[in-house]
Amino acid sequence: MRHKPLEPYLYLSPGVFCLVLFIVIPVIFLLILSFFRWDMMSGVYSFAGLRNYIEMLKDPVFFQAARNTAIYAAGVIPVSMAVALAIAALVNEKLKIFSIYRSSIFIPVIVSLAASGVIWLWIYDYRSGILNHLLAGLGISRINWLGNPDTALLSVIIVTLWQRIGYNMVVFFAGLQVIPRNLYEAAMIDGANGLKRFRYITWPNLLPTTSFILVINLIFAFRDFDQIYVMTRGGPMRATTTLVYHIYETAFAEFNIGMAAAATMVLFVIVMAATWFYLRFFGEKE
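Request: output the structure for the sequence above.
Response:
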């Protein structure tokens, strides 16, 4: 009887060990914790069954946080991907002006979200912020960007776009680099204009790259926390409270660990379901 070689499994073992230790075990522990009441201060815990989930679904703050998260993701993901693709295409065409500024477009990516939040706090400041000074120069009255519930979430979205476009641009640019140039040359000989070349050559060849960026950005959008914590603390009037920030408040401000674990499991299921849905119905075509 022929034995299967063990060498491939030995190569895989470090990655599998890390996966189990840092992902599988914490998820299982979190699932178990969501069925308990746990007082962090006293260490006392008791079985609660589905009570945490029931109370969570009765909490209006949870649904407001879910709504804010959906708006945040809808504002960040498509805009950052569209702008990044446009910049990557221009850089790929070797336009000098965009090649020069390619590095500067990527610089925000290496700045931490917390540091970005501090920078933009100064930019958005109602009295001394540079943005309101520019608006005043145009004859537009000052805007309380972070203090107004109508503009606070938009302001946070702009900060995330500022940082995420550079990452998406680099990945799109890498995808464009592997598309054979002879395809474009043949299309140009056949008289295809730029729009047709993008539609029939660029876009089909970029679908795997686009899938990767979409899934990564979806995960990022659902777990973004730093800039919200630094800039708004979920306010004003919970206008910027996302699911992740709501979980943080529930766990470490209200010390309701069981309900925080239940909300985390709901968020986990939402992200996994959205990722599975996209890969199931769109990934196979790519």
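The chain has a mean pLDDT of 88.
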